[in-house]
Amino acid sequence: MVHSRKDKQHPLISGDLVRDIMSALGSPPDLFCRTLYVPDTEQLALQCVYLESMIDKKTIDDYILKSYMESTFAEGKSPHSEEWDNFWRERSFAEPYHSLKEQAIQALIEGQCILIDYKKERICFVNVTFPKDRPIDEPKSESTIRGPHEGFTENILVNSGLLRKRIRNPNLRFEPMVIGNQSKTTVYLTYLQNLAPDVLVREMRSRLSAIQTDSVLDSAYLEEFLQDRIWSPFPTLTNTERPDMVAAHLLDGKVAVMVDGTPGVLIAPITFFEFFTSPEDYYQRADIATFIRWLRLISFFTAVFVPSLYVAATTFHQELIPTQLLISLSAQREGVPLPVLVEVLIMEIMFEIIREAGLRMPRAVGQALSIVGAIVLGQAAVEAGLISASIVIVVAVTGITNFVVPVYSFGMSQRLLRFSFLIIGGFLGLFGILCGALLLLAHLVSLKSFGVPYMAPVTPAQGSDWKDVLVRVPRPYLRPRGLPSVIERLKRKH
User: Would you state the torsion angle of the CA atoms of residues 215, 216, 217, 220, taken in this order, to the nearest 10 degrees?
Assistant: First the structure.
């Protein structure tokens, strides 16, 4: 053989690489090695190694092997019209064998094909990943009436393309990171270099780099590592599947974290009042958007405080209830064996159970179960004398208003607060609710999201930003250019 002298010196030429790869991966059934020989000899010319479950087999057969045999193989040129990132890389046999083996194993599990070229003594890494992704569709958790109907998918490259389509700016940055000792998940830190404050980008980059975990299967795995306070009921980051929402926040100087394998994108910093806004507010007229925002704010107070106020009023402060209404409530409660607090707790817990069951069951059955279950259980409980009819109304109203806020994670915070105030009101009455509300307000004021006050722009007050908080003024009167005041303040810190 031509390389007989080198066989003893280099394990690549003696064919050890393929055996070592198979050993490292546990000889999986989808690992294939295609071998080409020099014509009329038994000398190895090329070995093509790939995981069949990760690649486009047609590209391997037609573009690589067939063209190689016909001497028409164009190195570094993609077989498709679009350019692929890192489509072609090559390494020399002269590099350390251990490094080449580690690179080959990592490339294989990322969906690349390994070409061991014995003629030129090199290893080529060719990106022939076959995309096994669902098509771009409307987000299921964030429905849209007027506006774009595109949603992120589980492919991080597709998601970055959706952002580039909306922000055609050379300052758009995607900083790749790999997080997860076992999962090796690709994460993109995304921001606009000319708008995002350097201190914010550095802080997010630092928090991402400090994460030590075995696996990252969803953006929620990173959220608890990134948020400012772990034990607060309020999220200091927001999560969305809508590209238009991410683009809007990036244009406001914020940063986003995209995780491969999940459509959810994290955005920071975020403030309390931004949970009551939706991208759709900017696709409607200003008066309609303002009206809807006030509905959301009223729904928040209704969902959190109405059950506790009802329990406190009927248990400790009957003098606050009009006489006719008090007589009606007393007549309904005649024969009911349970205290008002226990009644409301039971119905609230049952409502949560029905809602969770409806979410987890098959879609065709889940909606019917939620509606029928709530009606049947509520009616049966009233007829059996276990609860009063007014309790059903209170629980139903608070349950419905909980869904008005457009961000699901903030709706979960409302549910926790509702139970907390319910217990406080049941034991301490209106005085306890007032003390709890003051503590809640103090907690909100003390919160920060990546250096931004959580209650901005109300406190600290910034009048120029009030045009887009509880009231959305017409677009000609909105800020024509520039960033929100809290972001400008971060830029000045740098």
Answer: 130
